Amino acid sequence: MRQTALGLVLLLAPGVCAAGELKVYPPAVAVSGPNRVQQLLVVEEENGRVVADHTTKATYTSSTTSVAKVTADGLVTAVGDGDGTVTVTVNGRSLQVKLTASTGVSGWGFRNHVVPTLTRTGCNSGACHGALAGKGGLKLSLRGYDPDADHFALTRQVVARRVDLARPADSLMLQKATRALPHAGGTRFEADSDHHALLLQWVTAGATVPAAAEPELVRLDVFPRAALLKPRDTVRVVVRAVYANGTVEDVTRWAKFVSSEEQAATVTEDGVVTVVGHGEAAVSVLFGTKVAALTVTAPFATPVDAAAFTPPAGAGFVDVLVLKKLQLLRVAPNGTCSDSEFVRRVFLDVCGVLPKPEETAAFLADTDARKRERLIDRLLDRPEYVDYWTMKWSDLLLVSSRRLPQPAMWAFYRSVRQSVADNQPWDRFARDILTASGSTLTNGRGNYFVLHRDVSDLAESTAVTFMGTSITCARCHNHPLERWTQDQYWQFANLFARVGLKNGDRPGEVLIQPRADGDALHLRRGVAMPPTPLDGKAVPEGDSRDRRVHFTDWLTAAENPYFARAAVNRVWKSLMGRGLVETEDDLRDTNPATNVELLDALAADFVTNRFDVKHLIRTVTRSAAYQRASRASPANAADDRFYSRYLLRRLPAEVILDAYSDVTGVPTAFNQLKSAAGDSTTPTTSYPLGTRAMQLPDSLAVSRFLEAFGRPERVATCSCERTADASVGQALHLNNGQTLNEKLRSGTSVVARWVDAKLSDREVVDRLYLAALSRAPTAEERDRFVGILAEAGRESPAARREALEDFAWAVLTGREFLFNH
To answer: Where, by residue number, does the polypeptide cross the bilayer (predicted)?
Structure first.
């Protein structure tokens, strides 16, 4: 491909985009020769979003047909050398476009054209020849991550058959793909298609090898980047490849398109997006080793009064940006939750505990307008906050004796807990773990490297834990949904290849020390790649510093695009029920946040405030978005991701079990540990009676209840380990299990105290509701339960005791108790 000077250049007349402005994309185009084309995209824009696609309605006139021709659909081809103009007209409005054309033609490259064609048509997919063992004797690299091997397989393995240089049209790769010959994979393209033409021209030209002369693909430009449409509207997508030598070309014909939400918008294989519902969809574009995405927004049909989107007085950026998004989508936000809902919600979200009845009563009686802010501040200073967030970060870091000796597990846990208690800035927390050295018993953070001894496991776990992104696929091949290549993976992995481990003198002790040599070898190439952070700069040659220091300098830098966003997204999900990026381990370009502006603003605020986790929690919980009522209205029932209401979610296993202990007054005993293999148990005295479930440092502490309700095993660095899905086992535990029933039957339980104190039925009902649900019962609820208890009391004391247990069981197994709302 020649430099841009040899191409066709289209330049729009200067102007500032205004509401309803006619625009043509791309703003600059390079095309040369009859086999290169550029699709023009003619659109109506408002506030940076496409609201209508006029491409097929526009008329196109070339002033110099000897230089370039333009089809009725806006497809531009250079037919000569020289300058000219194209006039684009839509409904009486015109734009004049300058052009420069050249007939200089370069052939099709294997890496930049043939491989993407095989990817677009599915030939090198995992279901076809890209499978591990290939298909029908032909093995191609998955989505073309190894062009050299693919070229050898097509041109050399079955000489003069897959590629026939003497009779190009008879090449098996063409005959089978068009079903001219039997093909188990079916028809991949037609004989009159652009795909067939490209491959035939490549074979005719001698089936050129992947050459260094082929420019490196730098990025994809996608037009449009955002669209605001209504159901049944369409917009076509134009994709332009930008290469390292400055050349550009339209690659729409060879790109792959995927919609993230097909209930909102679909996309054809040719890149035509159709809105089919309401909401928002990200359309991913994949070509070569690069990916890009555009956002298609389809507002809901029912108009909403603009006053509903006015930020409350003194609103911070969270509410401004949440309401901005809701207004764009026409989703009405809920009003503010009640004080009783708020006090229960924020206790559970910040500290993982229910408020005590007297705390609830005091909060409800408080008339201070700032009482919610003051409560948040008090909660952040409580020891339960330390317990709860230590549990969360221990989940993330896989603290467990499953792969650590007990002394090492305790050292790791205590270091995490101390960091939470000190409100250690998140960047320092990460740096201290990732550069830990010395004894793993003295510096418990070093056990991170004991858990991840394998360099690939260490690299992949670090990317998920501290960057919120998965690179695992790129270990063996280029990532199918992200821009990470296999080469980048092994460059990244080599940052961790010099972490040395050796056994210490004490039981369970490992000594962590950086080594002076050693490299991780590329899985396919068998050579060491320059140690380089993802999208970062390589460690300078000859630099003798610990490579981990180079990595953490890059990771924790204010401008790092992953670190702060991953952290704030995890905290946001914990408080709001759904991450701005879902799942929280899947931050990537093709999985954009539901509110990109908000994620960016939260990350920037986090950095500005020196990675202060408490500040982040305070910022979110003080917002009106967090304090909205949870009950869906007809105006927002379809919203589960834009935060028009607080999202209901089941409480974590540990929180439920601790709440049972708190409400019943009977602590849970943890006196058994599972073996690492899980096939036996041994007694333990490490957890004295009164230890809360969320204070357990070890996921091997035996509790069938916790296992049934989704406690993570802490084996894999993945948020998927903790589950909130309902199961038969949970139902059995609630209905017939010993955990709750034994607590209610205990002679020291709250039920026994009710009986001993001779509380009236009304007092019992009121007290349990306040303790369990942080509210008073409604008149209907009170009358119903008082009636049941009174009837049992008339029968016998034993019957009343049983009725009291049944009443408590009914409240403590109900949805309102088990969920935060």
So the answer is: none
